[in-house]
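name: query_chain
kind: protein
chains: 1
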Amino acid sequence: MDSDVYTENLLEHYKNPKNIGILKNPNFRAADANTLCGDVIEFQLLVKGNIVKDVRIKAEGCAISKGCASMLSEKIKGLNINEVIKLNENDIFEMLGIHISEARINCALLPLVVLKKAINKKQILFLIIS
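structure:
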């Protein structure tokens, strides 16, 4: 795929984001913001049997953060939670498929940071309760 196709895909996810809304009983949830850019992302996940069964996002901000959050929400559906934990910035850049300038890297990585925060909060809570 050339970068124009990736750019079109990112813009489509920005204009018509997937999985927007509120999940009834998420067992993983976190939100965070990039105060420099004004991006705000929230991930809500329903995980059963270690598999991401459903995901919802709230996404406000630039095309990169909102589009990336939408793309990431699609990517993680059906994944084992351990596969989600292993996702890293290279996976995000590959998923986006376009060059991200230094100034916009935080926009692209915010959805991943929020997703990891949701999983880590749940793991910490599990350890405290156990």
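note: The domain at 3-129 is CATH 3.90.1010.10 (Sufe protein. Chain: A).
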